[in-house]
């Protein structure tokens, strides 16, 4: 996790904090997949709870970087917490939307998403990676 207030040209991915819920776990796993497997030098994250309490480093990360949110439910807590800083979210998704295209896959549980759940995580991370790639093309 990124804790210092870095500036510029990073994509800050803020996943849902739905602890104990499969969609929240999928949001976090998709963020980690983006960071570890797709863009280790370009994508960062921080703890959503830090943003919720107004931690200055978390707020600076939001204000100084491109921000993607991944929400597990219709409450959109990640998106709303970013917007509470005055920053407009650059791209926001809900985990539930990935099911629309992959109705045959369901996570097996919360602590163990199982193979179907991790396939969904991979699809979600790939969709987000496409959005990050589009950002890079716009900047060129």
Structural description of this entry:
Strands 2-1-3-4 form a 4-stranded parallel sheet. By secondary structure, it is α/β, with parallel strands linked by helices. The chain has helices spanning 22-38, 48-52, 56-64, 77-83, 96-99, 114-139; strands spanning 11-15, 43-44, 66-71, 91-94. Mean pLDDT is 87; it is low at 1-6. Helix 1 crosses helix 6 (114-139). The chain is globular and about 40 Å long. The protein contains 6 helices and 4 strands, in the order βαβααβαβαα. It has a single domain (11-128), classed as Rossmann fold. Strand 3 (66-71), helix 4 (77-83) and strand 4 form a beta-alpha-beta unit. The longest helix is centred in the last third of the chain and has 26 residues, at 114-139. It starts with 10 loop residues before the first strand and ends with a helix.
Give the key terms.
Rossmann fold; four-stranded parallel beta sheet; 140 residues; alpha/beta
